Amino acid sequence: MRAALWYNRKDIRVEQIPEPSVESDEVKIKVSYCGICGSDLHEYLAGPIFIPVEKPHPISEDKAPIVMGHEYAGEVVAIGEGVTTVKVGDRVCVEPIYNCGTCASCLKGHYNVCEQLGFIGLSGGLGGFSEYSVVPQKMVHKIPDSMTWEQAALVEPTAVAVHAVRQSEMKIGDSIAVIGTGPIGLLVIQAAKAAGASQIIAVEVSSERRGIAIQAGAHLVIDPTEVDAVQEIKNYTNGLGVDVAFEVAGIDVTIHTAIQSTKAEGNVVNISIWEKPATIPVNHFILTERKMTSIIAYRNIFPQVIHLIANGQIQAESLITKKITLNQIVEEGFEALTKSKKQIKILVDPSQ
Prior knowledge:
The chain is of the alpha/beta class and 352 residues long. It has 2 domains: 2-142 and 315-349, Quinone Oxidoreductase, Chain A, domain 1 (Alpha-Beta Complex), CATH 3.90.180; 161-294, Rossmann fold. Helix content is 27%, strand content 26%. It is built from 11 helices and 18 strands. The strands form 4 sheets. Strands 3, 5, 6, 9, 10, 17 and 18 form a 7-stranded mixed β-sheet that branches. A 6-stranded parallel β-sheet has the order 13-12-11-14-15-16, with helices on both faces. Strand 17, helix 11 (329-339) and strand 18 (345-349) form a beta-alpha-beta unit. The longest helix has 14 residues, at 155-168.
């Protein structure tokens, strides 16, 4: 079968690899669509970050080159001994977290902060940029017949946004700012709207993405190259700042904007994976008793996210800007996302 493998930064190759079979407790999936994630793009441009290179990941037991892709859905085509949660023919999406199950975090159900945290398609395994994927049954969630494959492939990134809003402790009626409106930022806008945010402000340099932010539910969109974003946010919130600011770009200027835009005792939520160390003005927290919440992935949330998308409360599919084949993944996928802010979410069909 064909698959896209990460060898090094700027070096992803589509190759023929053996088609996998299932072992005990495993599910084989014929992949319908897999999205290119911001984390994938980080690995392409600046990796390795999550990808194990020197030694294998302790759970997957794999190291580079690895089959990429972790935002995906497809049809179950085989199940191993002991699999009881799905059957052949079921339509499913994948929750791609590797966790040990025995550390303190796992034992309290917080498996997304496992001591050995990893992700299929980043930390090893057969990711979604392949014709077939094999995963443990705990990673598999059934989707309703009414959900399209495109929607199902976007459950994983939507789960990041919904988890971020939940962890932010945003309350109905609160004001929020989203600094950076890539795919996750736009999904945060939708998730916060669904959760009852009364004022949603987006800060974005790209004119195309500012327009999409309005469509996603932002009440005010700010171009920080034209005006002082912090002052505009304060003007819009009666001089106070927002209750919660979500930083979703991973650069110094955006984290500084998020901090300064948040009211005293408000919450700054960092969702980004950073390619370089950040400079954080700690006194901006101390002197106002602001707090900071950091987000990695999600936990115990996929069934609810599936329902949010299936019933239209979050319209994740509105972010899809292009669908491509596996052979196009580098030039029409990774390079397109690098070169154009017009591209938001690109889905890959590995069967073509």
